[in-house]
Amino acid sequence: MFVLSIIKDTIPVLPANFGAPPHQALIDEINKKYANRALHDVGLCICVFDLAEAGEGKVRYGDGSLWYKVKFRMVVFRPFISEVILAKVKSSDEDGMRLSVGFFDDMYIPLAYLPHPATFDPNERAHFWLPDSEAKTTHERLESPTSERMYIDQGEIIRVRVEADEFYDDEPGPPKAAEGVAVNREVRRAPYSIICSIAEQGLGPVAWWKSAQADGALMDVA
């Protein structure tokens, strides 16, 4: 889930921080710049792990800061493909579910990666699974008895498998104009997002499989 990435950069230390130890001042400045920032093809930066190298501070013309060439290791959040992790359901809609791990919310489960057959209940704003159901259409599944539905509710802890991650680098700036006509800007996408699946046995709400294990244990005792 977490990896160490080596990064090189030139970091300024402001005059107000000259009294602090250079090592600590550099770590503070690096964390200000990188913490909670998604780097393309790297992942979500969490914090500095350690400083590998730091050159001598130099003053640039017209700038009172000390600039250091540094090489450091950064703790990065980037689960590897096929890794199984725990997440919380943040919201659900007709397109799938959005998940959160607390500090990162751009995790999604599209419809194709939900257990089959699964359907979105617009009244409950949640997806539900109908195991062993012969219903073939959404309408038939929505007509099923509520007692047979296994809902995946908002706030529930679920076990998911990482299927893919995606990086986007949208261009900043005002909307572009074509022949004098302003073109509506596309909805900005998250710079880093993760696609997950619960379409296998053992995945999905943790409570599902805890109850299954308990039932199995009772059968063994009997």
Judging from the principal axes of the Cα atoms, what is the shape? elongated
Can you count the beta strands? 16
Q: What is the N-to-C succession of helices and strands?
A: EHEEEEEEEEEHEEEEEEH
**Category by helix and strand content:** alpha+beta
By DSSP (H or I, 4+ residues per run), the number of helices equals 3
Major sheet size, sense and barrel closure: 5 strands, antiparallel
Helical percentage: 10-25%
Q: What do the pLDDT scores average to? A: 86
How does this model look, in words?
With 222 residues, the protein is of the alpha+beta class. The protein is 15% helix and 42% strand. The chain has three helices and 16 strands. It has helices spanning 22-34, 138-142, 206-221; strands at residues 2-13, 38-39, 43-54, 58-59, 66-77, 84-93, 96-100, 107-110, 118-121, 126-129, 150-152, 157-167, 177-178, 181-182, 192-197, 204-205. Strands 1, 2, 3, 4 and 5 form a five-stranded antiparallel β-sheet that branches. Strands 6-7-8-15-12 form a five-stranded mixed barrel. The chain has a three-stranded antiparallel β-sheet with strand order 9-10-11. Strand 4 (58-59) and strand 5 (66-77) form a beta hairpin. It is elongated. The two termini are 40 Å apart. Residues 216-222 have low confidence and may be disordered.
Key features?
disordered C terminus; five-stranded mixed barrel; 222 residues; 42% strand; 16 strands; alpha+beta; five-stranded antiparallel beta sheet
Secondary-structure blueprint of this entry?
Elements: E1 2-13, H1 22-34, E2 38-39, E3 43-54, E4 58-59, E5 66-77, E6 84-93, E7 96-100, E8 107-110, E9 118-121, E10 126-129, H2 138-142, E11 150-152, E12 157-167, E13 177-178, E14 181-182, E15 192-197, E16 204-205, H3 206-221
